[in-house]
């Protein structure tokens, strides 16, 4: 069921939600959280579809905030709120409200969203694109216990990671970090199978892929070993190679779905490591609403530190360099050579005399 409201208010939206629940015969509210999606018109459909799929695991009230930019100077000063209220099959297992804010209302989105939050329920804010540099200081982000961004959608993902590290606040997370959860689980399980010391690591993947950078920073932070970042044509992460005291450990995924785990002394095995869609990523993030300390530690390791190449000491020459002879010894050198030649010829001269 869908109810369209034009030039409305938050009070009218709440009344429409009650009417919609009664119309479909579910007056009780059984939702566990409020998910606020801040996006644009272009990405609203995909984001809402992912949220509806995730609501099967986490029934929630989804509020989609779309700030419409007015072209006319007159429209910029006027304020208007349009809404679509969806309940039933069109809203997954929860409720959905699509908010389109015009004019001055777009600058005060938090005042529009606040009356629509579920009482006594956690709030999660998700920016699929165009996330603020400091999500916790954003007016909408300040309402949430959990703030989800996606650096993969940024124009310069690696630089965006640096901004995320400097502005990190407990409760921040990123879908680029969520994408590497199966990789981290598989690598940790591989190291549990052997008793060894990791000496160096190589992470291979696409250029400018924030998930590759985060995995490399996590390994460098946890193992305290040099981590080299190499490039491939993708898709995404393609391989992790660990040089250990018991031989190499390699997790190689060339096709984006099936990976091969190789451990020295054991047969190679195939493991499922497919690229997950956005609905699975959001569902994973909604399972835990406490701060992710592991993500914070890896993020603070720093991209610059990861790409800094330590200075190598100059290698010693294979051939020893002869020390310069003193001046007196250098002057006597021709005389010594002549004496040596005379000594070699002496026996021949004696034989001729006889």
Automatic annotation (TrEMBL):
Which species does the entry assign this protein to?
Streptomyces capoamus
- Locate the compositionally biased regions of type Basic residues: 334-354
Q: Name one Pfam family in it.
A: OpcA_G6PD_C
Q: Bias category Low complexity: which stretches? A: 310-321
| Record-linked PANTHER family | OXPP CYCLE PROTEIN OPCA-RELATED
Glucose-6-phosphate dehydrogenase assembly protein OpcA C-terminal domain: residues covered: 170-299
Where does the Glucose-6-phosphate dehydrogenase assembly protein OpcA N-terminal domain start and stop, copy by copy?
51-165
This chain belongs to the protein called Glucose-6-phosphate dehydrogenase assembly protein OpcA
Stretches the record annotates as Disordered: 310-354
Origin: domain of life: Bacteria
- NCBIfam families registered for this protein in UniProt: OpcA
